[in-house]
Every structure is written in structure tokens, then in C-alpha cells.
Amino acid sequence: MNKYECKIETMEHIGKVKAFIIKIVNALSYRSATHDDSKLKEPELSIFTEFTPKLAGSTYGSDEYKTFLKEMSVALDHHYDNNPHHPEYFFRKNNSGFTGMVGLYDMTLVDIVEMLCDWKAATLRHNNGDIYKSIEQNQKRFGYSNELKQIFINTVKSYFE
Predict the structure, then answer these.
(1) What distance in Å separates the CA atoms of residue 91 and residue 49, rounded to the nearest whole number?
(2) Shared-domain flag, residues 77 and 148
(3) Residue 53: which residues within 8 A CB-CB, separation 6 or more?
(4) Cβ neighbours, 10 Å, residue 89
């Protein structure tokens, strides 16, 4: 292979990589435009209207927070059924009922990016919100690896601070 052929092959490779990145960017762009749209309609709207201020004043993962979630079950069930950026979407879709890695294993990288962005935004709604604590607590909740936890931390440091 000569330099000219190498250059052409490399440019073709770069073009393919660009096309794949654009597919991911387009998927993320769509997710950013439609994120949590289900919260703007019933049965979610009235329940989230009532509980959003309560959740904001609670500590993530506390007994009070968990009680609020139980009281919101109708809205949360609907929300999880319609939003694949939640691992629960896949637990429910697969009828597994298991609240561990099963949901995460079925997610795409686009789902996971939206999920992490959602976690970060959610911490901003809480008086004592902390994305690093959320990542830690969600590792226990969803059973993801230390490697994925570190990727989340690296992403937060690189893009959210």
C-alpha cells in the first residue's frame, strides 16, 4: 500500500466513524427533545405535581423518599413503562421483577447516557443533591460494576462540572 492508498483508506475509515457518531448524536438529540415527556400527561402529571416538591425536600434514598416513591407508584409505573433511560423499564418489559443488573444489561449506551444526565439533573432538584452519592447509591441499587461506576464519575468530572 502506498501513501495515497493509505490516505484514501484512512479517510474512508474517518467517514465511517463520523457516520456512526452522528447516529449516536442524533439518538441523543432525540432523547434530549423528548426526555420525560410522559410526565407532562396523565397519569403522571397530577402525581408529579403533588410529589415533586416533597421529593425536593427529602434526602435521596431516605425512608421518607422511599415512602414518597411508594405513594407515587401509579405514576412511576407508567413512567418506567415509557422511558428506557430507567433500568426499571427493562425489568418491567422483561417481567423479571429483579432490580439488579438485568435492566442495565438490556440498556444501550444512549439509554445510559440519558440516565446519567437524568441523575445529575435530579440532584439539582434536591436540597442536598450530590451526583457522586447518587452514583454510589445507584451502584448498590442496580448492582453495576466498579468499572461502570468509575466511568460515570469520569463523565461527571469531564462534562458536568
Answers:
(1) 26
(2) yes
(3) none
(4) 20
User: What's the CA gap between 32 and 134, in Å, rounded?
Assistant: 21
Structural domain of 17: 1-34
**Total number of domains in the chain:** 2
Using a cut of 0.70, tell me whether the model's pTM lies above it: yes
Would you give per-residue pLDDT tens digits along the chain (161 residues)? 999 999 999 999 999 999 999 999 999 999 999 999 999 999 999 999 999 999 988 888 889 999 999 999 999 999 999 999 999 998 877 765 555 566 788 899 999 999 999 999 999 988 788 999 999 999 998 889 999 999 999 999 999 99
Q: Do 11 and 51 fall into the same domain?
A: no
- Name the residue with cell 457522586: 132
Considering the domain architecture, whether residues 124 and 154 belong to the same structural domain is answered as: yes
